[in-house]
């Protein structure tokens, strides 16, 4: 039994402009491109036989149109392929990685002061010719999720504020937070030196021994934004971890380790930024 990707019901960001897709695939002659079921199999969607079933069931789109024709040849470098509405990345050269950046490491591919940095962790990949972008930054004292990719379009959109991709943090802060006042202030907005800022969600997870563990969700990308917001409401951060970027979660991944993103995760990232 073939299980399709989980549908993403996220709405497009209010301010973004989405280009209409072409209506239907451009058919390529024999000998050019690759057969659609082979492309799906190479992308890890299903075996070729199971991919043929997906096509028969009308669950596969190419360039905005449902495809039921077996053996259709497409250009995997340019065709937009979706299964059950979720985009499938089919280009062999694309790399999508999740890194748990350790505390004390720089969010750069190289460091002039020879401090440990993200580039050290992916050095072998860079030497092998992969040109990787890190999606956003984390300050040296913050641990947690960074995405690395050579997909420049995806990286740009994930970092652009107009797409409002959320980020989730776990913060240990000074002081015991009781009641709802702090959360309300953060959700309503706090005036910082570079303008107002607010969180999308705030939750107190643990309180005791003069400190609190809180979860903060926001789509702001300004420097040290979580630390500055919490300090502004009287609870400076003592430890900070980013656990999620949009649909991608850090999970139990150890600091300093990499993992390749799954097909569903990549598809959901594409959906989040309307690619």
Question: If you had to describe this structure to a student in words, what would you say it looks like?
Answer:
- Residues 1-29 are annotated as: Disordered.
- One of its GO terms (biological process) is enzyme-directed rRNA pseudouridine synthesis.
- Belongs to the pseudouridine synthase RsuA family.
- Its EC number is 5.4.99.-.
- The chain is an alpha+beta fold.
- The protein folds into three domains: 34-87, Structural Genomics Hypothetical 15.5 Kd Protein In mrcA-pckA Intergenic Region, Chain A, CATH 3.10.290.10; 93-160 and 257-270, Alpha-Beta Plaits (2-Layer Sandwich); 166-245, 2-Layer Sandwich (Pseudouridine synthase).
- It is built from eight helices and 17 strands.
- It has helices spanning 36-42, 48-56, 118-121, 123-127, 152-159, 181-188, 225-232, 263-272; strands at residues 34-35, 60-62, 65-66, 73-74, 81-83, 86-88, 96-101, 133-135, 143-149, 167-174, 190-192, 195-197, 201-208, 211-218, 237-245, 248-249, 258-260.
- The strands form four sheets. Strands 7, 8, 9, 10, 13, 14, 15, 16 and 17 form a nine-stranded mixed sheet that branches. Strands 3-2-5-6 form a four-stranded antiparallel sheet.
- A hairpin with a 7-residue loop joins β8 and β9.
- α1 (36-42) packs across α2 (48-56).
- It is elongated and about 70 Å long.
- The two termini are 29 Å apart.
Task: Give a brief rundown of this model.
The chain is α+β, with helices and mostly antiparallel strands and 275 residues long. It has helices spanning 36-42, 48-56, 118-121, 123-127, 152-159, 181-188, 225-232, 263-272; strands at 34-35, 60-62, 65-66, 73-74, 81-83, 86-88, 96-101, 133-135, 143-149, 167-174, 190-192, 195-197, 201-208, 211-218, 237-245, 248-249, 258-260. Strands 7, 8, 9, 10, 13, 14, 15, 16 and 17 form a 9-stranded mixed beta sheet that branches. A 4-stranded antiparallel beta sheet has the order 3-2-5-6. Strands 1-4 form a two-stranded antiparallel sheet.
């Amino acid at each position: 039994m073939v299980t399709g990707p989980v549908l993403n019901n996220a709405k497009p960001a209010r301010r973004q402009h989405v280009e209409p897709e072409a209506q239907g695939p451009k058919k390529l002659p024999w000998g050019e491109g690759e057969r659609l079921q082979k492309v799906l199999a190479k992308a890890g969607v299903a075996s070729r036989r199971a991919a043929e079933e997906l096509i028969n069931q009308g669950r596969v789109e190419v360039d905005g149109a449902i495809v039921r024709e077996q053996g259709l040849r497409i250009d995997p470098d340019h065709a937009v392929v979706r299964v059950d509405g979720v985009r499938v990345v089919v280009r062999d050269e694309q790399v999508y990685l999740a890194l748990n950046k350790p505390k004390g490491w720089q969010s750069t591919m190289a460091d002039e002061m020879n401090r440990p940095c993200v580039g050290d962790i992916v050095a072998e990949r860079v030497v092998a010719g992969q040109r990787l972008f890190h999606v956003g930054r984390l300050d040296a004292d913050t641990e947690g999720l960074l995405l690395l990719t050579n997909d420049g379009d995806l990286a740009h959109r994930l970092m652009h504020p107009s797409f409002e991709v959320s980020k989730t943090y776990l913060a240990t802060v000074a002081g015991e937070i009781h009641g709802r006042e702090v959360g309300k202030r953060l959700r309503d907005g706090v005036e910082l030196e570079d303008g107002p800022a607010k969180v999308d969600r705030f939750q107190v997870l643990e309180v005791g021994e003069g400190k609190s563990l809180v979860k903060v969700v926001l789509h702001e990308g300004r420097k040290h934004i979580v630390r500055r917001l919490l300090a502004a409401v009287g609870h400076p951060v003592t430890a900070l971890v980013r656990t999620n970027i949009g649909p991608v979660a850090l999970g139990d991944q150890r600091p300093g380790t990499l993992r390749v993103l799954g097909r569903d995760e990549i598809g959901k990232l594409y959906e989040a930024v309307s690619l």
